[in-house]
Amino acid sequence: MPAGLDLFSFRPRGTVRGAVLTLVFTGVLATAAATGSLPRQESAEAAQRPVPSPAPSDATVDSAALSRAAAAAMADGKSGKKAAEEFVSRSGDRWGAVYDKKEYAEFEQALDGSYTGVGLSAGRSGTGGVRVTRVHAGGPADRAGIRTGDALVAVDGHPVDGLSVSEVVSSLRGDGVPGSTVVLRVERGRAAWTQTLRRARLTMDPVTVRRLDDGAVLIRVAAFTKGAGARVREAVRAAPAGAGVLLDLRGNSGGLVEEAAVAASAFLDGGLVATYDVRGEERAVYAEGGGDTGRPLVALVDGGTMSAAELLTGALQDRGRAVTVGSRTFGKGSVQMPSALPDGSVAELTVGHYRTPAGHAVDGRGITPDLSVGERAEERARTVLSGLGGAS
After folding, report:
1. With a cut of 50, which residues of the chain have pLDDT below it?
2. C-alpha dihedral, 160 to 30 to 346 to 339, nearest 10°
3. Which CATH code of 3.90.400.10, 3.40.50.1370, 3.40.50.300, 3.90.226.10 fits the domain covering 207-331+354-387?
């Protein structure tokens, strides 16, 4: 389980040669999802470049058989979606999932960085409970005075003890309808209270930039939604000459692979970003040329750094472009392909995995940073950046 699970997490998806792909980093049904395109098809030259062998795949599901099972259930007057969920569950596909039309529409809307919720991120505390790890500024939770570090004890009267963080997230999001309410039981130290929040449509700013006291530039990327990659590239271009960059990917819930590749292009002069396979067919993602290859760069990661953010981390680390600091990343690199079912629901089924430029599999393993740091990771990262000559 990651250090923090965003209630507006993203599941990136990409289109290459007509195939719609998803790099899955969480099996949480209730979190938002983003979908989009991989950067481009490989050129003839690139397609001939050797790529590492694919990582072992999860069990795969026969999409035609799945569709037949759903249709048979509907013919018997039963739920096609439920039949599909049972089929996927029995298949052994750890990250396979089935979504109804409304859920999938919500995922599509998350492309633009918007979501319906109360504006919280949740994670497992050191004592095993569920705590608030982030509060969306101006959101319902923020206006109600809920703070980072508060403990979530119950949702709608149901204790969260024994529930996974994903189940808590699902309860918080509910049906995803703006204006609907959810009742939280919250503890802070010895204080405890019940708070009713009204869900709202919220927009997340995925990229924030600020100048540090020593002259370095901190670029924090919360998720790779539409335009996030270009924002990173613009921030690097606008940074003063000689100023180092601290790229903060902690808690980054992933997003569009295309956007992660654009972000990689800010620091690389073209070349390989990642390889992936679709039912055994090997493909690759490349950065565009013209990036800033000389500016000192440190990437800050943690257990909440997922999927597309891991793809970027792996590219910068393997190619020697950045020093990575923090803790092991989440480890989610499953490629999935959506399949439409007879009742209009959508099943996302695992078809392969992605790997870093050096051929390291990410799924189930994560990325170990060059410098493993627990507490005060940002402080250590800034020290490393300064040592690289990143202060101005």
Report:
1. 1-57
2. -90
3. 3.90.226.10
